[in-house]
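Chapter summary example: a protein plus uridine-5'-diphosphate-xylopyranose.
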Amino acid sequence: MKIGIIGTGYVGLVTAVGLAELGHQVIATDKDINKIKKLEQGIIPIYEPGLEELFSKVRAKGLISFTPDLSAAIRAADVIFVCVGTPPTADGSADMSQIEEVARKIAENLNNYKLIVEKSTVPVKTSYWIKRTINLYKKTEAIFDIASNPEFLREGTAVHDFLNPDRIIIGVENERARDILLKIYENFQDKILVTNIDTAELIKHASNSFLALKISFINLMANICEKTEADIEQVALGMGLDPRIGREFLRAGIGYGGSCFPKDIKALTKIGEELGVEMGLLREADKINQDRIRLFLEKVRRALWVLKEKRIAVLGLSFKPNTDDIREAPSLKIIGELRREVALVQLYDPKAMDNMKQVFPEEPPYLVYHPTLYDAVKDANALLILTEWDEFRQMDLLRIKNLMANPIIIDGRNLFEPSEIRKLGFEYYCIGRR
Ligand code: UDX
């Protein structure tokens, strides 16, 4: 069985390398020819811990190959994992044009039976549209099946998540498709849940939206903490010790970002509304998340009053640690606002600076990227922490204090114990605690 992977973004690339690690023969393609060229030379175009090593391993075994030719990849494959993007449109619904394009290409190149597996996060009922599109455009009598096998990997731990899944959801409509996917994932037999396709599609959207809801909930509680003597870290601990609630995803901060949560909660809201279901719960969670940036900037203004020409060090640009991904990162909006108010912004991130330079090119003295966090904090009137990289937790605070013009920290990720950091002489503002 040869597996084709269409789209080599985070999900596609990790899936390709992961399936090769499981021993399958994989051929991957992407419409970005430069990406394919890099991959052919053994270069991984993204930063994801562990991916490069695993890629070299499966590449050396000859289990993975790449082609810029989508039609060739389709013809060569028996099973096709569709991993192309479904970005949000202006009204929040998912833009399905890349999926449709792939479906049409599959129809044109349907040279034998193929199983087409939706890996990208897609709205419930997408399989119906893929099927209809292929049937409309196919030129042969060859048959095909559709399946949904949503991906749950997290950036930063994607390789680990792929190889140690909590569950593998397989949405199918017949035994042939089920058996193929059971064979592909035979190493993880006890983790497999077989459902119908609509259910599998909804499990993915529901899981991401539920986690986003959990984060917005704790952020709402943080707002209450800030008006009382309650401490959000202890509230989260106290709630999380109840196994029905669980301790994960109760970290208050500047809100969720990334390529999934913000997009998926909007897409599910839209799907529900189209189906006539009242989706106020999710709309509210999204609103709470968007408001995190305003509340954080309010803290910055409370500490600095006028921002114009103040030196502000910003540590952390990626939407979470251990990735270079800045999609929907809170840093984007925060830096945008600092720029608007003509602050002098000094940036540092261990991995995401190259990506950020594409959005905010260097413009001294208003926006400067620094090679180390210590360079970034030099002469700063305040330091903002936007991502919880370990490097920031471990920084030499006394050195930081001596380098800064004013030792003020506004921490969007609650990295430090307020009483301890204040003892060192910092003015310290954090989220949901005093
Ligand atoms: C998420 C899902 O976890 C994963 O299963 C799915 O496949 C893709 O979307 P990812 O976007 O990589 O993964 O990151 P995740 O670790 O879930 O964090 C998402 C966002 O939530 C980040 O911006 C993070 O900072 C934020 N977050 C997370 C919080 O603000 N508080 C928390 O307690 C947890």
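Key point: The longest strand covers residues 2-6.
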